[in-house]
Amino acid sequence: MNTITPADQVERHPCPKCTAPTGSPCRTGAGKVASSYHTGRFALVPALKAELTVKTPADRNPGKAWKAEVAVPVAPVAVPGAAIRLGYARCSTASQELQSQLDALARAQCTRVFSEKISSRVKERPELEKVLTLAREIKTAAPHQPVILTVVEMKRLARNAAELMTLSSTLQADGVQLELLSGPLTGVHDPNGAGAIVFAVLAVAAEVEREGIREKTLEGLDTAARKGNHGGRPSVMDDDKLAVARARYAKGESVTAIAKALGVHRATLYRHLADSA
Hints:
Layout: H1 6-10, H2 39-42, E1 84-91, H3 99-107, E2 112-117, H4 126-141, E3 147-151, H5 161-174, E4 177-180, E5 187-189, H6 194-226, H7 239-250, H8 255-262, H9 266-275
Parallel strand pairs: 1-2, 1-3, 3-4
Antiparallel strand pairs: 4-5
Helix pairs in contact: 5-6, 6-7, 7-8
């Protein structure tokens, strides 16, 4: 049986992040021995690619002043193993559930899953940034190691063509593939070459579909208004009114004016605009 410890295997490689030489532990930005080896370093070891964390041995004195140890022979270039899948799940509100997405990502054998409850209207999505950063670190340390960002469906990543193309550019620059578990383009897609075209077509199709829904909703409301069916204040926002409100809000109309036109309370409209994905 092989008695070489994970730390021994990791230290056969210099660290691409902190530049620790072979035979030495990683170090923090403050110049102390790190408590764990940097991801980009142990990702170079095929046998550890699914671990995502390797603790620094006690004899390396984690937390103490760092010093270089005796160098060891540099390991040969590692042969890429199976692809590393990193999962991402998102839902828009606290009332929606994430478990179905998490179950699907588990069945896809994702090594690690990042999840958050946050509206797609919010530009800053911390967990999405974390999974992209981890994927980038792995590819930097092991350029030939396949890394796949896995999501259940495209809308979990972006809400319009601009965001989708930005993400496509990021994945292309980092050499990370995208896997969709459902939808018309289920499967693994490489953002290089034809993959970028796939992302663009998906985004345009989604935009056309949304515009069609908005146009039909507006036409329906106008027809009802001409027949004198204005209605009173509803107890809740329905899908049609929410679609109209979002379209008018996107054109710069104030929430107060929209709420008055739709016959809903301003606070109700604010809440639904914030919660909608």
